[in-house]
Design a protein that fits this description.
Structural class: alpha/beta
CATH class of the largest domain: Alpha Beta
CATH topology of the largest domain: Rossmann fold
Order of helices and strands: HHEHEHEHEEEHEHHEHEHHEEEHEEEEHE
Protein name: FAD synthase
GO molecular function: ATP binding; FMN adenylyltransferase activity
Number of domains: 3
Number of helices: 13
Enzyme class: transferase
Pathway: Cofactor biosynthesis; FAD biosynthesis; FAD from FMN: step 1/1
Helix content: 25-40%
Organism: Guillardia theta (strain CCMP2712)
CATH architecture of the largest domain: 3-Layer(aba) Sandwich
CATH superfamily of the largest domain: HUPs
Number of strands: 17
């Protein structure tokens, strides 16, 4: 049975190689297995086959504890053995070492027994620590090399390579790590794409298995109703690979630790990307993010990432590409609009690998929402006026305060990078923006509100307060001109 299972996986990998040479595309029989996964399998098989050529069957052992990584390793090694059956008579020649835990989950024990029966594994159970266990295998079975399911994100994984001699002070043997450079997502892609059975605890919210005393369900998979998503739905960024072990507690004599202070996010999460040089330079305060977070939170949607980047196509594209592969949705803010210098649409298309094209469906959606390329949003019409004047910003701030008192509203001190803005009478937002270049004005005042009458009322009051000789222009929009460098 073990040879049959290994041979089946080996044939899938070999078939993929033949198809790449002949047709450069997947054959119908391998639909569902991605190119990237086949590449990972090929690299792992190269390591396994190299080890099988270096050592005799009786000199090798595989560490198998029933976990997801060990399961992937077992099937890859079986495939490797099937490819070299001239040296191997059966899977029983390979010792499978299982370091028993007194508080092992019953589900893990059950899965190990199932694998033993199905694949005719020769499992050697040891109740000792790893160091003593390795010494036992060397002294009693002549073991010279161990296949291990270690990955780079594991504790001490960064200290080893695919072939690494044992640590100083340990018995002498070779450690072989075929899946060292696999990520968490790769493990689950392998198991799911090849339909390989795994321990059922992974469908109950566990992402890394130890003993009952040091393993909990991963709270990043916890739903609002208290249930847990299966482990394969946890999505981790490159820098977050260690978080699959987030529910493993630190215990004496082990290298398993709970990472504190790491960021949390759920698979059903979104990422927010604010785009704009004016935010990074402090000319505009980013109020979109807080509003979006509050709104999404109210809908039960977790915001996992917030990023602010400049108006650069490559940076936007890279961010969209990375975040879209790890989150349910990516929302960009601050870039799309009627401005002539908008780069967001092109960058998003580049990040997602799609071309720019008009969409009839999107046009219908926008029409239904009554969103036009003006200051409208979901049926709410905004009106804006702009005053450009030579009055310096400190004096203008005093005038804005006087207008706020007359209107009976409260001036909210929301600062936009040192630029004071307020909302008068809860109806009109007014912001002042100083200009320090050679423009014919020193300050621009923008008034914006849903009710045009209130905007005009505020405008008239400001014009009464601002000396006429300092006003250079009055515009009918809220867009700000770009300042030239000092």
């Amino acid at each position: 049975m073990a040879f049959m299972a290994g041979a089946a996986l080996l044939e899938a990998i070999a078939r993929k190689e033949r198809e790449e040479k002949e047709e450069k595309k997947l054959h119908a029989e391998t639909v569902g297995v991605s190119d990237s996964m086949m590449k990972k399998c090929k690299e792992a098989m190269d390591t396994i086959q190299a080890a099988l050529r270096l050592y005799e069957p009786k000199e090798m052992a595989i560490s198998f504890n029933g976990g997801k990584d060990a399961t992937v390793l077992l099937h890859l090694v079986m495939a490797g053995i099937a490819s070299m059956n001239e040296r191997w008579e059966s899977m029983e020649e390979l010792a499978c070492v299982y370091f028993e835990d007194e508080e092992c989950f019953e589900e893990v024990e059950e899965f190990i027994r199932q694998c033993q029966e199905q694949f005719h594994l020769r499992i050697i159970r040891l109740k000792t620590g790893y160091k003593d266990g390795c010494a036992h295998m060397i002294d009693n079975f002549g073991t010279k090399a161990f296949f291990l399911g270690t990955r780079k994100s594991d504790p001490h994984g960064h200290t080893v390579e695919k072939f690494s001699p044992s640590t100083a002070g340990w018995p002498s043997f070779m450690r072989i790590h075929p899946i060292l450079y696999w990520h968490y997502a790769d493990i689950w892609s392998f198991l799911l794409q090849f339909s390989i059975p795994y321990c059922k605890l992974y469908d109950c919210g566990y992402t890394s298995l130890g003993g009952k005393h040091n393993t909990d369900k991963n709270h990043m998979l916890r739903q609002r109703d208290g249930s847990y998503l299966p482990a394969h739905q946890l999505q981790l960024l490159e820098s977050e690979q260690h978080m699959e072990r987030h529910a493993r507690k630190e215990t004496a004599g082990t290298s398993t630790v709970t990472r504190r202070g790491a960021s949390h996010f759920k698979p059903c999460s979104v990422a927010l990307i604010t785009i704009g040089n004016e935010v990074l330079t402090g000319k505009i305060q980013d109020s979109n993010t807080s509003c979006a977070c509050k709104y999404l939170h109210g809908l039960g949607i977790s915001v996992a990432r917030v990023l602010v980047i400049p108006d650069e196509i490559q940076l936007i594209a890279d961010a969209v590409r990375e975040y879209s592969s790890h989150h349910m949705a990516v929302i960009t803010m601050g870039g799309i609009g009627p401005t002539h210098d908008d780069l967001t649409l092109e960058a998003v298309g580049q990040g997602l690998g799609v071309e720019m094209a008009e969409s009839d469906e999107m046009q219908r959606l926008l029409a239904n929402l009554k969103i036009k390329q003006s200051m409208q949003c979901a049926g709410r019409q905004f009106h804006a006026k702009q005053i450009r004047c030579t009055l310096d910003e400190p004096r203008l701030t005093d005038l804005l305060g006087e207008v706020a008192e007359v209107l009976g509203g409260k001036e909210e001190e929301t600062w936009e990078g040192g630029i004071e803005a307020g909302k008068f009478a809860g109806l009109v937002e007014i912001g002042s923006y100083p200009y320090f270049d050679n423009s014919p004005y020193k300050t621009i005042v923008v008034l914006e509100g849903e009710e045009e009458e209130e905007v005009d009322k505020s405008l008239r009051m400001l014009l009464d307060k601002i000396p006429t000789e300092t006003i250079t222009a009055i515009e009918q929009h809220g867009s700000l001109p770009v300042q030239s460098c000092l």
